[in-house]
Write a structure and sequence with these properties.
Helices cover 37% and strands 19% of the residues. It is elongated, with a radius of gyration of 20 Å.
Amino acid sequence: MTYREICNRFAAANIDNPEWDAALLLAHFCKVSRIDCLANPDTDHASPALAEAVSRRAARYPLQYLLGEWQFYRQTYEVGPDCLIPRSDTELLVETAVRLLPRGAYFADLCTGSGCIAISTLAERPDTRALAVEKFPRTLALAVRNAEKNAVSARFEPLQADVLEPSFLPHGTRFDAILSNPPYIRPDVIATLAPELAAEPLAALDGGEDGLCFYRAILSVASAHLASTGFLLLEIGYDQAEAVSALAREHHFSNIHVLRDLGGCDRALLLRHDGSVTA
């Protein structure tokens, strides 16, 4: 199978960047560099593993799962069908937390998934500690492996718990920040998304009928578990800033700041009870 053949097959499958995907699969399965792909596009690479991966990718199975790992922020993460694929938009949460966490902070990462938010924050801020909360045991085990791979496991505390259950956080625990990229997509919208999303865990996408059920759950407990100067940092959908802000005000968060991603879309909310928000 040649680089040119793979590119053509991916283009026919309406994959956005067929050349990039083809090059990554050839590098992973055949140790062929991107320069070699471009210089010798018609060289045949006989690899059953590559052929199977190309077939699955052409059927719109996620590239990241085929590779088994993905880059996020400055770290590398094991990924698979048990976790949501880390996306660059979520790096905004890490950048904000790294900048705002006080010295020696203890923070929580709710719905941790691959662990990418907590682990990248810990990697950038070696003075901090994190509690990572995840409902599903296999997903939490993957996050633990990622913490070990990125050398932060001593400061990464895993907790299996369901964010939608009352009192899911340890009684009396206080955090300098609570971070979360919770499920926030409405069920009627999920079916309209890219085909690759069908391979990602539905539980990591489905935010309930209006997309807001996890925000309600998190906001209902946040005040009891935040330090007086602590902050809550939530990833949101591009059209959810107003609705989640309204929920935050109901829970007495008076200082609300909308953060936008590189594309100019609303991407996160930074919430405090006091007036000290710095974006």
